[in-house]
């Protein structure tokens, strides 16, 4: 069963009588209970899509359904059953964290004593207890974001939209927020749509992603399937006792490029498959391997490849010609 279905969704913003297309025809299906990653550079259309799915914006054309409800006809019901959290969220400065959660709990129509129970649960499990009676203006950036996450969960949503939920947070707070969200998802079988510039975060939380660029979905599917499809190479990183005359490595089957920077970086079609032949070739020429590491293609490699920007791994073939 799909929690979200989008068909040929378009959105135009008018500027000086010109139409600027933020979305140019999005088709997307997100299954119930999955954590789905939505990636793209700034201005790609990610936030516009989330605004439309959460009923904060109307599309120019096309259709979208959330929990089986049409976004234009079922907005009230969708808002009751969904949550929305942005990075850098702001609330009333002269309200305490507890008052903010009380306020939004009432807005969602959560009755006592259930409302009190949910507030206490969120405050405790997000580590807000010591700061719950402080004004929002006096809270740290990390604590403000925890309040924003708590607010997005006060109605126990079936679908949760997370737009850069850990943006600007330090590592420790990011981990706390991320782990709590993951626990809540497992506990309540929520569907989550996550945007983040932290590709590590997306790769950790999501199995499927869609990459948006200039208003179009340019790649979608399981991260592992996309990696295989794009044939992004692995990299074998070696530290040797010397680095002269190692151009012969390029002739080994499966090797796509070799670069000497901090050690030797060898771009290969399969790290595990090619490691044996590479180490044998080095030892036969009296090279001593001091350390090695196999680096598998990451989501960052996928992202850069799809949007047309090449990272260092994709340039290894060119570096080889220059310095080996």
Total count of helical runs of at least 4 residues:
11
What proportion strand? Answer: 25-35%
Distance between the termini: 54 Å
Helix percentage: 25-40%
The quaternary structure here is single chain
Please compute the radius of gyration using only Cα atoms: 24 Å
Q: State the low-pLDDT regions, or none.
A: 311-324
- Strand segment tally: 14
Shape: globular
What is the N-to-C order of secondary-structure elements (H for helix, E for strand)? Answer: EEEHEEHEHHHEHEHEEHEEEHEHH
Strand order of the largest sheet: 6-7-8-3-9-10
Structural class by sheet pairing and helices: alpha/beta
- Largest pleated sheet: 6 strands, mixed
Could you please describe the fold and organization of this structure?
The chain has helices at about 45-55, 75-80, 95-105, 115-125, 140-155, 170-190, 200-205, 225-230, 270-285, 300-305, 315-324; strands at about 1-15, 20-30, 35-40, 60-65, 70, 80-85, 160-165, 190-195, 210-215, 215-220, 235-240, 255-260, 265-270, 290-295. The chain is of the alpha/beta class and about 325 residues long. The strands form 3 sheets. The chain has a 6-stranded mixed beta sheet with strand order 6-7-8-3-9-10, sandwiched between helices. A hairpin with a 2-residue loop joins strand 1 and strand 2 (about 20-30). Helix 3 packs across helix 4 and helix 5 runs parallel beside helix 6 (about 170-190). The longest helix has 18 residues, at about 170-190. The chain is globular. Mean pLDDT is about 90; it is low at about 310-324.
């Amino acid at each position: 069963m799909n929690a979200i279905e989008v068909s040929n969704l378009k959105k135009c913003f008018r500027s000086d009588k010109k139409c600027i297309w933020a979305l140019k025809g999005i088709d997307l299906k997100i299954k119930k209970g999955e954590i789905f990653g939505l990636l793209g550079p700034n201005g790609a259309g990610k936030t516009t899509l989330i605004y439309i799915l959460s009923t904060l914006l109307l599309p120019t054309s096309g259709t979208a359904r959330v929990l089986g409800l049409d976004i234009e006809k079922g907005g009230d019901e969708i808002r009751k059953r969904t949550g929305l959290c942005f990075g850098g969220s702001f609330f009333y400065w002269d309200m305490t964290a507890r008052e903010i959660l009380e306020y939004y709990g009432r807005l969602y129509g959560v009755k006592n004593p259930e409302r009190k129970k949910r507030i206490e649960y969120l405050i405790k499990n997000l580590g807000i207890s010591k700061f719950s009676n402080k004004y929002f203006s006096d809270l740290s950036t990390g604590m403000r974001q925890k309040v924003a996450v708590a607010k997005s969960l006060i109605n126990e949503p079936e679908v949760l939209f997370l737009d850069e939920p850990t943006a600007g947070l330090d590592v420790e707070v990011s981990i706390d927020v991320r782990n709590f969200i993951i626990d809540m998802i497992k506990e309540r079988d929520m569907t989550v749509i996550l945007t983040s510039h932290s590709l590590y975060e997306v790769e950790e939380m999501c199995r499927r992603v869609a990459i948006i660029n200039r208003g179009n979905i340019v790649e979608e599917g399981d991260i592992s399937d996309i990696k295989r499809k794009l044939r992004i190479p692995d990299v074998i990183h070696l530290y040797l006792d010397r680095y002269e005359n190692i151009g012969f490595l390029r002739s080994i089957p499966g090797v796509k490029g070799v670069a000497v920077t901090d050690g030797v970086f060898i771009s290969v079609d399969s790290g595990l498959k090619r490691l044996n032949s590479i180490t044998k070739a080095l030892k036969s020429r009296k090279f001593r391997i001091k350390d090695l590491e196999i680096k598998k293609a990451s989501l960052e490699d996928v992202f850069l490849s799809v949007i047309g920007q090449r990272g260092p791994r994709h340039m290894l073939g060119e570096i080889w010609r220059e310095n080996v």
